[in-house]
Recover the amino acids of this structure.
């Protein structure tokens, strides 16, 4: 009888033992000192038959900042830190304001919270639904603030030890899909990234 009860207890409580929650996800994503790799972005607009494709490289220092270096179709470098979102003009960092650039910067700032493991920051604006385990997880963000409900229907993020894919679904029926490849952690930074994110 004792073995039976122990067995039943293990069956009943094993989902809680094996559960993977947002706190564990945040802790895992905050472990690396830096994360670097390539990104490909497809922007699906209702007015276009084909997606707009961009690509480049990124460098993330969790809790410090993100360097987003678009290389195609043209060169554009954005930096996201606690002091704001800046654009490189070839000589210095200047405020990245105005037009679609600010919309892009807003998206970058939003998923910076997740790339950097700041699920607490995301929970202020979204209801989080996490599924899977540390080796393969998916996080769905359902907007709960009035502002986020105006912009997004949902955001889906998936990965393993790092974020591998982000999909932003907008209320107007448009969609952005970002995939990350060649991701490396704790590798030396080049001089530009080091200075940009210091």
């Amino acid at each position: 009888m004792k073995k039976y009860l122990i067995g039943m207890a293990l069956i009943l409580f094993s989902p809680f033992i094996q559960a993977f929650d947002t706190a564990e996800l945040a802790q895992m994503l905050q472990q690396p000192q830096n994360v670097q790799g390539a990104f490909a972005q497809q922007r699906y607009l209702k007015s276009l038959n084909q997606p707009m494709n961009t690509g480049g490289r990124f460098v993330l220092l969790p809790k410090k900042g993100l360097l987003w270096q678009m290389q195609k179709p043209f060169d554009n470098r954005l930096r996201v830190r606690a002091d704001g979102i800046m654009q490189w003009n070839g000589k210095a960092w200047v405020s990245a304001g105005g037009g679609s650039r600010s919309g892009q910067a807003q998206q970058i700032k939003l998923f910076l919270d997740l790339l950097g493991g700041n699920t607490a920051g995301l929970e202020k604006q979204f209801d989080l639904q996490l599924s899977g385990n540390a080796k393969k997880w998916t996080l769905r963000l359902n907007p709960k603030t009035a502002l986020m409900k105006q912009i997004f229907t949902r955001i889906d993020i998936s990965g393993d030890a790092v974020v591998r894919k982000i999909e932003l679904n907008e209320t107007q029926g448009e969609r952005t899909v970002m995939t990350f490849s060649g991701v490396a952690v704790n590798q030396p930074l080049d001089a530009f990234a080091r200075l940009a994110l210091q």
Summary: Residues 1-18 have pLDDT under 50 and may be disordered. The chain is about 30% helix and 45% strand. The two ends are 62 Å apart (CA to CA). The helical segments are 2-18, 22-30, 99-115, 119-123, 146-151, 191-197.
